[in-house]
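haha ok so turns out i had the wrong file open the whole time. this is the CORRECT one, sorry everyone. sequence first:
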Amino acid sequence: MIGTVHVDPASATSVRDTILRMKPEVVALELDAARLMALENPKAQSGRGAGLSFLTMALLERFAGQMTGSPPGTEMLEAARAAMAVGSRVEFIDLPIANTGAALRKLPRKEKARLVVDALASLVVLPFSRINWSKLTEDMESQIEAFRKRYPVLSGILIDTREEYMTNRLKMVMGSTTGQVLAVVGFGHRASLAKALAGYMEGPGFTTSFSWQVTTDS
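then structure:
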């Protein structure tokens, strides 16, 4: 399992190189089919129907991508291309975006207001900040806990519901093959998914490993 930072240029390179080197039987992506199509055809993307919360987060991700030179999801797109190059089967393990969008439309007004305020503040601060992705991924548990306290409903939608779905999908994928499965997920999900999958399908024919890829200062 590889944990990535979605707008970190180094993540896309690391994921691509890992797949080309390992040549796994299956590459499992933190995507659904609709989101891969959107990555492949960015001009056709539309946030209609997802609500203000979805659009605010999409704006933040896009802005961060412009700053780093790596649009959101670049590492997933690179993973899909690399999988095709080595003949790996691609499996989508994330909850369909339509389900997440429907849940976001029901987000409490209080959390919607906080999200807008935080988004605007980030748009002001980010241009003057030097992003250090290795520092960003340190002490991830504390960062996630702070996010849960500020956004109790949103965190349930974006973290808990999706991680439960991804865990079940990964178990299905692992059960469908005796070959090597490489999962590519966001860094923030890696620890929870690893814990949920710990001990699953242990035996002489199975091994599991978990890693992450982030930028480090030279």
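The longest strand covers residues 181-186.
again sry for the mixup
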